[in-house]
Amino acid sequence: MSEVPPESAEFSVDREIWPDDLPRTLPFPGGRKPIHEIVADHGRDRPDAPAVTYYGNTLTWAELDARADAFAATLSERGHGLGDVCGIYLQNAPQFLVAYYGAQRAGLAVTPLNPQFKAPAVARQCRDSGASVVVTATDTIDVVREAREDDGVDLAAEDVIVTAYSDYAGDDGPYPDELTAEPAVADVLEDETALSTAVSNDADVDLPSVGLADPALLQYTGGTTGLPKGCVHTHWNVLFKGTTTAAVRAMGPEDVSLGTMPMFHVAGKQRYCDALGIVGNHAVLLTRYDPETVMDAIDSYGVTSTWLAVPSIEEIVDHPAVDDYDLTSLSARREFTNCSSFGTTLTREISEAWREHTGAGVQESGYGLTETHTTDTHTYGEERIEPGFVGQACYGVEIEIRDFETNETLPPGEPGEIVLRSPATMSAYLNRPDATDEVLEDDGFLHTGDVGRKTDEGYLYFLGRRKDTLKVSGHTVSPREVELVLAEHESLEDVIVVGAPHERRGSVLEAHVIPAAGTDGDDLEEALLSFAEGNLAEYKVPKDIVVRESFPRTDVGKVDRVAYRETLPDGYE
Q: Which intervals of the chain form a coiled coil (predicted)?
C-alpha cells in the first residue's frame, strides 16, 4: 500500500535497457502537491495558454482554473468537503475537467461513472462510494433521477449538477449525437443545479487544506471478476502516476494531446486530467471517436500526441479521405503513437501503414491496472511488435513473476502471476476488506491475477488473465497466449479462443475468428491449424476453427471476451 514519501525521496531507474532520452530519476515539473494546485499555478503563470479545446471552443488555463475554483466554492458553501465524494457521470468534455479539479480543490474525492451506465449501475456506484454530488449532462439526467430513488443513495436534488455538452462546444463539427440531440439545461432542470450557476460563484470561500495523503479518487474496476470494486487512491497516487505518464510519454507544455480515450476510464483520466494538469499542455477533447473528426482535429490543431485502439488506427489508414488531411504533426515530437492492442493485435504492417501517413510508428502503450492507477510499464522508444510485449517497469515499480500456487518467484522466461509493488498502489478496495486482503500483501506487493513472463533484461510480456485459463488434457492453457500466436497470421482480423466441452478431455480449444478482408474462407481452417501446429505445443493447438462476423467490444475498443462467452452454449468456457 502506498504512503506519501518524504520530499527528499527519489524514484530512479538503473536498468541498462532504460531509454537514453528519458530521465533516470522521475522529475516532478509541477512540484509535489495535489494536481488541482498545479492547475492553479498554470492559471496564474500562463493565463492565456490554451488548456482545452472542444469542437472549436477553447478554454485558457486562466478560464479553466477560474471555473474549477468557482465550482469548488459552490460545493464548499453547500457543506461538501473532505471525506465527501463527487460523481462525474459525463462523456469526454471540458466540464469533466472543471468538475474533477474543482471537486478535489474543495476536498472531495472524485468517482467517475461510465456514461453508458443505466440507473441500477449508477445507483450502485453512488451507494457504494457514498457520492453526495453528481455532475451529469442533460441527456442522462433522467438516469440520475431514477438512481436517486434507490434507498441507499443519499443524493439531494440540488446536488445533482447538470450541464449540456454544447454549452462548452464551438462551431467545429461534425458533432456526435450527444451534442446535436441533447436538450438545453433550462428545458430539463427541475430541482437540480445548472453547472453554469455552480461555476459563476465568485464568493470568497475558505477552502480546506488538501494534502497528498487525502483521498482523491474512487476508481472502479471493470467488474470482469465480479461486481466492480472501488479502488481508493490518494492525491499522492494520482500525482505520482500522472507525473510518470508525463515522463514516459516525454510530454511537455508545447504538446497538443488529442483525447478520445474515455476519461471515466483510469487511463483516459490519467492522460487528459492528471498529466494534462501537471504539464499544462493543450488538450483537444472529442466526446466520441469518429475517424474523420479525429483526422480533422490532428490537421487543424497540430496534434502531437494521442492514444488509439488498434481497430481505430486501421480505420483511419483505410479511410478514403486519409490523404486529404495532414497527420504528420504526430511525428513532430515523438517516433511512435501509443495504442492498445489487447483487443486487436498490433502488427508491423499496421504500424508501417500508420507511419506512411503520420511519420510515426505505432507501439503498445504498456501494462497497468486500476488498482495501481495504471502505467506500470512503458514501451517508450521500443520498436518491438511482438505478441504480449508491454515494455519495462516504470519509475518505482517492481515486477515479479510468481508461481500461482506457491507464491515463489519464477526465473526469467517462465510464465506465472504478475505481482507488483508501486508507489501508487491503492490503499484499499472501498468497503471490501476481505477482497483487499486477497490481493495486497503486507509489504505492498499486489497480486494481479494476470499471467505474464519476464525476460533476462527486464521486459514484461502479458499473457492473459489466470481466470481465463483452461484445462485441456490435463494441461493448463492460457487462451490469450494461443490468441496472440494466431493473431500473427495475416488471414485474421480478430480471434477469441474458448474451451468447448468434450466427453473425454473435459474441454478442447476452439478458435473463433473474424477473417481479414479478402481472405478465402475455404482455405482458412487448414491454414490456421497448420500455422498453430508450427508455433504451439500440441495441446495448445485448437481442434476447430469457427468463423464469426463480429465480436462485442468494450468502451475502449477491446474485444469483450466476457460478453462474447455469454453468447455461447452451456458448457463452453
A: none
In CATH terms, are 35-234 and 470-565 the same topology?
no
The pLDDT assigned to 341 comes to 72
Task: Give the strand order in the sheet containing 377-378.
Answer: 377-378, 389-393, 459-465, 446-454, 416-421, 398-402
Whether residue 241 is predicted with pLDDT greater than 90 in this model: the reply is yes
Taking the C-alpha atoms of residue 426 and residue 446, their distance in angstroms, rounded to an integer, is 9
Q: Quick check: 170 pLDDT over 60?
A: yes
Minimal CA–CA distance to 19: which of 347, 308, 334?
A: 334
Examine the pLDDT at 21 and tell me if it is beyond 80. yes
Contacts of 300 (CB under 8 A, 6+ apart): 172
- The three-class DSSP label of residue 249 is coil
Q: Quick check: bond before 112 cis, omega within 30?
A: no
> What whole-number distance in Å separates Cα of residue 412 and Cα of residue 410?
7
Where does 370-465 sit in CATH, by number? 2.30.38.10
Please determine, for residue 550, whether its predicted confidence score (pLDDT) is greater than 70: yes
Record the pTM.
0.85
Q: Where are the domains of the chain?
A: 35-234, 370-465, 470-565
In whole angstroms, how far apart are CA 172 and each of 67, 122, 297, 377? 23, 32, 9, 36
The CATH number fitting domain 470-565, selected from 3.40.50.1580, 3.10.450.50, 3.30.300.30, 3.40.190.10: 3.30.300.30
DSSP string, 492-558: EEEEEEEEEEETTTEEEEEEEEEEPTT--HHHHHHHHHHHHHHHS-GGGS-SEEEE-S---B-TTS-
Going by C-alpha positions, the residue among 435, 416, 79, 442 that lies closest to residue 232 is 435
Least confident of 237-246, 389-398, 484-493: 484-493
**How far, in Å, CA of 573 to CA of 566, rounded?**
9
Element (H, E) at 317: helix 310-317
pLDDT at 522: 74
Q: For residue 356, count other CB atoms closer than 10 A to its CB.
A: 11
What cell does 373 get? 492507477
Q: With 80 as the cut, is the pLDDT of residue 332 above it?
A: yes
